[in-house]
Structure formats: structure tokens, C-alpha cells
Amino acid sequence: MALILVGESHKSVPSDEEKEEMEKLLNYLNKPAVKSFHTEHGYILDCIDIQKQLAFDHPLLKNHSLKLKPTTIPKWTKDNNTSYKSSSLPFREEDISCPVGTFIVKRIILEDLIQAQRLKSLGFNYPGQISSKDKKIDLTGHHFATISYKDYHYGAKGNINVWNPNVSPDQFSLAAMTVSGDEGFQSITAGWIADGNNKTHCYNTLCPGFVHVSTKYAIGMLVQPVSIYDGQQYQLEVSIYQDHVTGDWWFELNNEPIGYWPKSLFKRQGLADGASAVVWGGEVYSSVKEKSPSMGSGHFPQEGYKKAAYVNGLKIITDVTKEVSSPLASALKTVADSPNCYNVKKILGVVAKAAHERRTIPAEEEKKEMERQLKAINKPPIKSFKTEQGEIFDCIDIHKQLAFDHHLLRNHSVQLKPTSVPKWITCHNNSQKIGPLQLQLKGISCPHGTVIVKRTTIQDLINSQHLKSIGFNIPRHVLRDGNNSDLTGHHFATADYEYDNIAGVQGNLNLWDPQVSHDQVSLATMAIAGGPIIEELSSISVGWMVNPLLYKDHIHLYTYWTADGYNKTGCYDIRCPGFVQVSKRIPLGVLLQPVSIYNGTQKEMDLSLHQDRVTGDWWLVFGGVNVGYWPQSLFIASGLVKGADLASWGGQVYSPTTEKSPIMGSGHFPKEGFGKAAFVNNIHILNGKGEALIPQIYTIKTHESSPNCYKAKYVHDDDEPWIRAVYYGALSLILVVESHRPILLEDNENELVRLLNYINKPPIKSFQLTPTTIPKWTIHNNNDSRSVPLRQDGISCPLGTVIVKRTTPDDLIQDQRLKAMGFKYSTYVSLKSKNIDLTGFHFAVAQYKNSHYGAKGNLNLWEPEVSPNQFSLASMLISRGLNEQFQGIRAGWIDHITGNWWLVAFDNYVGYWPNSLFTDVGLSHGASYVSWGGEVYSPVKEKSPSMGSGHFPEEGFKKAAYVSGIEVVEDSKLEGSMGPPLHSLTTFSSTPNCYKAIKKPGSESYRTKQLEEEENDLERLLKNINKPAIKSFRLRPTTMPKWTINKNNNSEKGGSLPFRQDGVSCPLGTVIVKRTTLEDLIQARSLKSMGFKSSRYVSSKGENIDLSGYHFAVAQYKKFHYGAKGNLNIWEPEVSPNQFSLASITISAGSNEQFQGIRAGWIVYQWLNKNHSRLYTYWTADGFTKTGCYNLLCPGFVQVSTDIPLGYLLQPVSIYGGKQYEVGINMYKDHITGNWWLVAFNNNYVGYWPKSLFTDVGLGHGGSLASWGGEVYSPVKEKSPSMGSGHFPEKRSYTKVAYMNDFVVYNDLGSVGVTPPLDTLKTFSSTPNCYKVKKDQPLFGKVWDDAIFYGGPGGCTF
After folding, report:
1. Sign of the CA dihedral 816, 819, 821, 826?
2. pLDDT digits (tens, 9 = 90+) for 7-49
3. Beta-ladder partners of 826
4. Residue 1134: helix, strand or coil by DSSP?
5. What pTM was estimated for this model as a whole?
6. Nearest CA to 1349 among 1305, 1284, 1304?
7. Quick count: other Cβ atoms within 10 Å of Cβ 856?
């Protein structure tokens, strides 16, 4: 930093003569103090008479007149800044105050002199990054990353980001601003240097020269606080400038004058009359025998604000009158002597509040240039639209688009369609194509004679420059390693076809949406290229790309072209002249959705590139729609004039070398096949004659730049030629460590197989566990709370065998990943006795440090969310020994006869560690330490995950994670165990602001009387609800039910829901009910605590109902009636454990306490059956005060059906763009008995609510409101889930938007139902930005009746 700080050094012992000489020097340097202070950091601050300071011992300053402040002060422009530029200061204690007429200085001690000699011996006797080429300077061991301004000036300023890098005793790391002159190399670097470092120079105040005037800050003091990676940033505002009256060079810190270097120190050709250069940046030094230390934050500039060190607010005084300006970016030159270890980059503008969003604010000159470019790129629109994602699309006159600004297209005539159209081979397909209609932006329609283009913004231009600066300015997959192209950070997996006269290519690109960081890219591509040498290479690439710098987020349609090997021509989409757009429906850069689901529905887009045989233009066609073309004249001097000689299909990723590379495609290797690995199918080639060909297997070559991480495979079938595809991609397995060298976790597939064969012994019997079901384990009753289920039905090992989980390749890869992450020991044990790197580890444990022979504890089970590079665990650990003799196991007790350490879980002997594994100083004869608690790990770049339940222990039982039943065995014969006294347990938390551990006495046992009473109440309630069964069935959740088919069909293909499971038949005189479990009761209470105990959108205006977290989209019929009916389209939206999403019909009457209502439909609530839809009902007779419940959880609803139980799983469900399924719901009042009946699934009478439940002011007389629609609930802190299909009704497309049709009301008792006119239905959406509802006439003849369309993607947080 500008105040040069030197790290602590080894204490060397000087000889007696040297010591005597140093004592004399100290007496000379340290002037008599008027007042002194000892700081908490161990150094002494002296108040020295300002007229008697060391500076005036310099021969050139004998008659110098002291200046207390500069006569002229530059008017620095203010910076908008997100870091605290005034918070990082030289440390100053409150009670330190120097008298008037004195200044404050740090007392020099013997160690300072020794350190100065060490610095000189290390080679650090000048700032090596300045003018190193002008002198024969030995720079061995020095490394720089700086930015310089070389022009005449009178001072400079910069805000230097403050960090605290680790260095060894023989290293240093600094950040500085240096002002220098020409003659004899004179410079100032928050210290001063003159005469080319030959005779006059020193650090801080170790020699005469610098005149100190500040009474607040002493040079050489500790600077704090320092910046935190991805957290709060601190900086020093440093300025050095020449007083134009006196010629002195002043040094200011955070606008506080610290002191000055008098003009008389310098020569006229040096710094006496201005300066010729200024440098900002970092420097490190390390002896050649050591690895050089980190510079700045220790992270490369590509990571950006809060992660990489920076200097911002750069200013220059350009003339003697103190005129201040910001240097142009073009005037700044970057220098990095070792770019593989240290780098520097300039970013337009300064880091401001927008930096948090990874945006930059351009300087005024640059902003004007960008505005000029934007004006040229964005042509005047005839019509404009703004999407939900904030992007703007313009309708541009087709003859005035950007393409015609290209000098080769000035007289070009627009071709509205190709003159020759290829006849591609038609192929069968198993996946669903995204067609042009799906890309039609909602509500956007361009007039005839216009084309649609995405408007370019100033941020797009900034991001394009940033892409170029990080190395990704072109898609590199058409380049090869042998053409001297820099492919650092790029990884490909493609299938290539290299033959002459390729006139076109086709392929269906499977759509995925891989996660990438801000500076990463993942794409799928189809490309053509041609040209004899790289300088004449022409190429066109099309496909989809995830690139936050180009498209913010998610997957977008992209194109790229070049005509000169990516040198001067070409760009993405329409960011430069070239591509001629003809479509008014499909803009380049448009968002693509929906995308594929792993092992589920696959989505793809049909793309083709072909050359017009008449004009020579290259056309892009999407799903049969001509999007536009690249005119032949663009390639007249290069390779695509008469066809191409390379076609390529596959994937590419890019990542800076400092980050783990992202996933490609689906993130899975090609061997997993269709539905799991990404693919390009329907691959065709157009030859020079215009004939479409399927490339033969021998003509395709795969190209894998990093085959351990990304692969490509061409799959073919000679009998069925349409089953030909390129499968590509993988989950990234490249980890970057401190040396920035990759560790490949899948070094060799054969080695993995060999290791697996060694680990997995030949089995006598094997079982495939079904991950889609929750096992029903045997129950262990001796526990404070419900113990973990352990044993799965159907698994039984023969006598003489043991059961083990088979190790897989993924297990081995993960083991290496854990080791690379540092998780290879119990890091919180014996921390003080080992040199263990605990970076990223956090613990919260209770420890027992005494001799013992075993321990026990009941570990509360949770499932915290972690990222792929994190873990979170709870454990019990037993250990003994120190350093290399440390021995430990997690869980167990020692057999006093054999000495083996046994692991017992759920009262089941699992196994043991033999005594022979350990030594006498370790666990062979007992242990000395045991701990219970939690541990997490996270890379320093990520926020650490939650531990346990994710709540602090103060919240207590049911909220905070715990370990109960703690015991230790102190008797070597294991004849007794005890709960250790609380005073013998010590709690330890490595980061108490994030994780804590506390201990509670036995009197505060988690097994409370209240808990026991609560469980007894639930058991009594279960006995009351579940009546004695005549016959019972255990349904099979691991298989898909085979239902009987309802032939009364209102859907396109699926009809009303098939419902009845084979083998389930109740005897005459019985009814079928779903048995209520203890979990159901607990869940019902959870629902009530969440507030979900009523139909919230009914009569919400009539009473003070808290609607926080609730969202509705319904159609209402507000007239007196005796029932309602409708077919509810069935979907299965994803919800979190605390959310639900439902569709229902509701009938109600009355208000407030007299409100009465019944409802039926489907609901998705994770705790009921993961994310599946279930049939449900709800009723109330007193405004949800005391009466009512779900399904049969309380008395009221009378079940009569022997086929349909309430609460039953509904399968199958509707598929977006595919087959639709419905459930018919009919509720009406019996005109004779007055009972309200529920009828479902093809006139099946499920049961009824007796009239006696209701009153005449409510449903006893009839209903006053009927509603159809959807409802969701989410805690206010979470984004609300999707409703229905998750799509807005504006899409007006059956099979894509949730609907209810065939709705009927009964206006008279005993009458036939009638369809209410649409104008009698009132639609209501509580949050229309997230969910909407629309009533409409039949669509395209697909829905036979008037319909209500409702739903939305969600995302509300209120």
C-alpha cells in the first residue's frame, strides 16, 4: 500500500560492533520526544518538536522553512464508491494526542534497522516496477502487476484497496502508487527515492528527507481494517502532488496532509518541475528458492470487485494550475511480468454501487464513445417492446438495419427468402421441438416490412469488452491446437465432419440450462468453417449459449461469424454489421424455454445452415422459419464463398483459469445416453449438388480437448439411420488449486475400474435400492425422540455374510474431491498440536478431555443444503495422541478383552476397528478425548453452508440440532458408563458468529413432559380417527398404479384421470379410506401453524384474514345456487417443504363467524407425498374457527365410495405441450335430504357433508358463491412456487396452461346444471405479476367448452 508495510522478520543477532553502530544510528534517527505512547501492538509513538525532526539533518534542508500545509490543494473529483475509503487508516488509539508544535512519529528500534538491511539484501531497495528497462536492474525474485500513465503531470491520486497477504520472513507483498521523473530516475513511492537508487533513498523516516507535519498519523503504523474476500472492502485514498508555488511534493492520506518532500531534494530534470510517469499496482518479492507469495487479495482480476484487489479513482493533475482529470483507458498501459501468477486488467470507469451487480460505470469520454456506437448499432425503431426479463426488442425497417452499414453491403438488395431450399431427410424423434411459435415473444408483433432485433445497451458493450479481456471473445471450437491459437480456459467436445464442398448442415440441438459463474460460458453449437489458413478462416456458428456477460442468465439463441480468422471481422448476433435479419418473429439472442429435464422430457431446437445455390448467401433456418442470412460478399476474400470444408456439432465451455470449469450440456457423460446426456441429433450434410446426406460413421471424428472432463460420442444405427446423434458434455471435474494447475479427478478410466474391482468384493447376493421411495425401516424405541429408520424391507443377507454399500466410480471421484478440498482428517481435534490448515472449516462441538474407553450419543438428524464443494456433518469423535501419533475414530467403544473399537448404531453391532490398527500412544489402550457436535466445510469463495438445523442452539428443542444421551465409559472393563458432568465438558466454536455450541443440564432434558403429553394426545386422536378395518391394503409407492380408464373424455388424449388401482377391492357394506398416520396429524398441525386452514380467497374482504404468503387466481360466480361442477386440469408443480400449490372448486355462503364452505380438488404439498398431486377436500361451518378439517382428519364428511379414498395419489399428470389429464369434481345439494354430495371421476359418488353440519344462514339453505381456480402458499422469505402448469394464461395454448372447463352451476334444487355465461364470472388475481387468470371461449377446437385458464411461474416474496 502507499504506506509501505514490512512483514515481521526473523530476529537476527548482530555482532557487538554492528550493534554498537546501530545504537549510534538509533540515537541519531530518534529525536528527543516531548511525549511518548506505547500502543497495544507493541510499538512506541513519539511526539517530536516539528522543527527538530530528522528531515532537517539533510544537507539540502539546513535552511529549509517549514510548511505546515500546501499553498495549493488540487480539486479532486468525487468518486461514487461502495467501499469505505475512510475506514482503513493507520491505527490510532483514542488517548494518543500530541501537543501543539509537535508531530507524531513511530520510534525506530533495532529490529527496524536489521529489517532495512534484510530488505536491501533481498534486493528490495527500489520499486522495481518503475522504468526497469532504463537501467541494468536485477529483478530476480520480483514480480509486478501494474498499470502506468506516461505523460507529463504534476501529481496523481488513487484509492488503493487494502489486503493483508501472507508472506514468509524473506518475502514481501505491497500495493503502491509511484510518481517518477526522468533524469537520474527520481521517484516517490510513499517513501522517496532519488539519484537512481544509488546514494539517496530510504523507507518511511529511516533517513532525512521527508518532512512530517501530521499530528494524527505516523508513517509505518499498522493499517486496519483490511478487506474481506467477497465481503466488506477497505481502501486508502492516496495522493501525491506538487505544490505549484513551492515545488514541494505533498503526500496526503484520505485528504489529510501527512507531509512533503521538499523540492530541493530533486533535480530539475527529475521531479523538481513535475513528473513524467505514474504507476499504480502491486509488487511481490520472494527468494528464488521459495514460491512467491500472493499479491493483493490472492485472486486474479477476472473475479472482479470484492474478490480481486483494485486501485480505482485514478486521477492525474495535468497542468501546474491543478487541473484534474481521469486518464483515458487508451493512455493506460498494463504490465504483468509473470501473467501466469499475477495479472492486471483495466476496467472502464470506477467500481461503484453497480459493481455489486458486476457492472461498471464508464468514464465520460468512454461513455460518449459508447453512446456513439449505440447510436450506430440501434436503428430508429418503428415499434418497441420490453419483456419480463427487462430486455427491449425493436421493430426496425428491414431496409435500414445495421447489416447495411457494412462497406461490402452498401448496395445489397434484401433477399426475403432463399432461392433454393434444401430437401432435408425427415427423421423420427423422441424429444419435443421448440418451435417458432414458442419463441414468439409475448405480446410482441412487428408490422409488415420490419424485422425484430434485440436492442443493444451500453452494458452490452462493456460486457463485450470484458469478454474479450478474459479471453472469450470468440467461440474457439473451430480452431485446433496446432494453429497457434490461445485455447487457455477453453474446453470442447465435438463431432467433426471434414470434407470439401459442404453446402449446408442441419441438427436438432438438445436444450439445457447449465449453471455458470459470471465470467464463464457454456454452449452447444453447430458450425461450418472454411479456409486454407487461419488468417483466411471463415466460419459461422449457431446454437444456444449460457453467457451472463452477453445474455444475463439462462439459455439464449446465439450466432457468431468471422471472415478473417476472428481477427477484425465478425461478432455475436447483430452486434456489428453483417447478418441480414428477415424474420419479424425470431430475434437473435432470444431466450429459449422450456429446457430439458434430466431423465425426463427432452427439448430441442431444429437449426440448419445452408448456402443458396444461386446467390451464395448462407441462410439460418430455425424450425422451418427463415431467420436471416450472411451475404456471400462478406466472405469474398476467404473460405465460405464456395462451400465449407468443416462441419462441427457439440459443446464448448470457457472458464478463467482461477475457477473450476462449468458443466457442458446436461453435465453428464455421453455414455448415459438419451434423456441424461446432451445430444445433437437429426444430423445431416448438404453436399455440393444440394443433396442431403447422413454422415457415415467413418466420416465423423470426435474432438475432445479435455477428455477426462468432457467427452463426445457419435451414436449410429445402420438399421434405423434416424437414430444417429452426437452425445457430448459432462460434469466438470477440474479443480484449481493454489498453483493454478488442474487436478484431474478421472485420470484414467481403467485405473478406476481396477480400483473398483479391488474395493468391491464378489457379492453372494445384491439388492438395488429404489431411490424414488422412502424405506420403511425397523423402529428402535429407546430414544429421546423418534429414532432413524434403519432396515429396508426385502433385504436379507445369508448367514456368514455382511451387508456393504457397493462403491461406484462417482464414490472414488468424490473421495478425491474431498481430499483435494482438505477434508481428510477430523480437523477440530488437537488443533493446537498440529499445523493444520483450517481454511474453510468451521466447528461447533462439546469436548470431554479425560481418559475413557468409549462414548455414546444420540445425534439429532437433519439434512442441510450444501453445494457440490461443501459438506455439513454431525459426529462423535474419539481420539488420542498428538501430531503424527494422533489416532482417532468417529464413534465407538473399546472391547476390554480384545482391545478392538466397536461401532454400535441403533443397538446393532455394525463392526469394529481392530486393536492392531493403533499403537500404545494412541487408541490401543483407551482414549483421552471425545467430542460431540457439528462441522462444515466450504471453499473460501462460497458462503459456508448451514450446520445442523441451520438455527442457533438458543432456539432449543425441535429447532436447533442436538446430541442427547451423552455418556462415556471410564471403566476399562466396561462395567458402567456415566453422563459426564456439565462442568467437565468444554464447548468450542471456531466461528461463533456463524455456528455455536452450548450445553444444557439434564433438568432441561429434551424428553419433556409436554412432549410426552403431546405424543399421547396424538395417539388417542389416531385411535379415534382410524376405525377398525375389515380389510387393509398396503399400496406400492415404488410402482406406478394401473388405473381403470374413464372414457368420458374432455382432454385431447388423456381424458379424465384414470383412478382405480388393481387389486384394491372393499367388501360390500364397507367404504375405502386412507389410513391416517401420526405424520398426517403432525402435518395437519404444521399446516395450521403456517396459516393454511381455510380457503383464503373466499370472503377475504368480509373478515380480517392475514393473507401474507397466499396468492390466488380464480373465477367467481356470485349468485345463489345449489352446487357447481368442473373438470380440473391436473399438474404437479414443484414446491418446497413449507409451500403448497392447489387447484379447487369452492362453494360457500355466509360471512365472518357464520361463513360456511366446502371445497375439493388437487393439492401438491411436499410432506404429503413429496411433490405429487393428491385428491383433497376441506370444509368449515363457522369461519374456520372450531369446525372443519382436511379430508377425514375430523368427523363430518361421510364416505360412501368403495373405490375412491380422500387424500389419494393422483397419477398420471399433465405434460407441458403433451397429453393432458383432468379430474372431474361435482359438488351439489341433495334437494330431498339437504346433504352436500361430492362426485368425482365419471360420476363416482365419493361421499357427502350432512345438512346438519350447516345452518340456514350458511350452506343449510344453499350457496352464494362458487369459485374455480388455483391457490399457492409460501413463507414470505421464500419465492412463491408455480401455480398450475407454471405458465401464464396469456399463452393461449391448450396443453401448456392449466385450465378448468365444463364448469356448471345448479340454479334450482333438483335441476339440470347450466353453464354460466362468461360475463357472469368475475376473475380475481391477488398478485397478477406472478399469477393470472383468464376466461375464454373454446381454443382451436381442443377444449370443448368455455374454459378458465389460470396459473403462473410464481416468484413472489410477500
Report:
1. positive
2. 233 334 567 777 778 888 888 888 888 888 887 767 788 888 8
3. none
4. coil
5. 0.40
6. 1284
7. 19
